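Write out the bound-state structure for uridine-diphosphate-N-acetylglucosamine.
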Amino acid sequence: MSTPLKIFSIVGARPNLPKIAPLMREMQRHSNIEAVLVHTGQHYDERLSEVFFRQMGIPAPHINLEVGSGSHAVQTAEILKRIEPHLIEQNPALVLVVGDVNSTIAASLAAAKLGIAVAHVEAGLRSFDRSMPEEINRILTDALADYLFVTEEDAVDNLLREGRPRDAIHFVGNVMIDSLRMFLPLAQNSSIGQELELKTGDHWRRFAILTLHRPSNVDSPEQLEQILAGIEPIVKELPVIFPVHPRTQPKLAAASIVPHTNLRILPPLGYLDFLCLLSRATLVLTDSGGIQEETTALGVPCLTVRENTERPITILCGTNQLVGTDPQKIVAAAQEILAGKGKAGKMPQFWDGHAAQRVVEILLRFLPSENRVR
Ligand code: UD1
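---
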């Protein structure tokens, strides 16, 4: 029997987890793949990490690098330093990374320097805003990756423009939407609706969801205050559920705002509770990347509190609208949605629940024959 193909899959931060879950599941179905899960420890809180492993049935990581928090340089450097010995010792055929967090670029760089092939899932997305740390991570990861798996057509053009070879680019769809489709029925059993008094019997009242964690929106308490004060007219109209990211928490505490009672400030939610709420929301206000896609897949109107998006398909085809941080624009767009005039949107191509299957089929087709020695 031939030796199985050893693939290191990397997770670090919360948004990686719904992307890696279907990939691990798919790889584990193939006896000719040895799927090794590496957690960098970038996110370590129970609420940002362990609850997702439990709910999505992600296997316990085989390797935990426990890097924890730090500046971008420290976090990236620690991952580089701590992953290298494992890569040398185990010599995987491939390192598979997802998304755009510090763990993504750090693991890719360590692997590429050792001549180990890299696959990037969610390649080619560009906000064209290099003040975002994620944009730097995306560009550099794509420059290093041998396999570029993309979620939308625009990403193909971006990669070609950056000189990446056509035959390295594979339009496979969206693995995060694989998770959404798989877990949506289970999420409907969540009791979060009753706990937050949004649901009585089978009836859901109207409510909105707010998430904010981008450095540009939350790192200065004044900016955060301006957004929260600006959306007050929306908050007065319906409950706004605001699960607060650990990055935002201290800034919120420092901000001198007295929130309206309708603004319901909560700790970060688990995947199933959050998905349940997302699927039932009248309106979502966010600066997250992933939530722009999840709302498009759910057909729920989304207002993105940023000046740009690296996910244009959610605007072209989905329910997303860019509103920036100008409170007047945010409120005007929200009122349109509350008046029932939100975008209808449709499902982007290949967001069909089978993206992970396509990724693994492609890897199995190409990898064994390569035996990459560079
Ligand atoms: C990271 C990602 C971002 C992603 C976000 C989602 C990068 C550059 N950014 O941003 O793309 O959208 O995750 O969650 O990789 N902290 C905790 N507990 C934890 C993790 C972090 O308290 O488990 C605190 C840290 O101490 C730090 C802050 O949260 O002060 C930010 O964490 P960090 O991982 O640096 O970046 P995020 O803002 O979470």
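---
The longest strand covers residues 5-11.
Confidence is low (pLDDT under 50) at residues 370-374.
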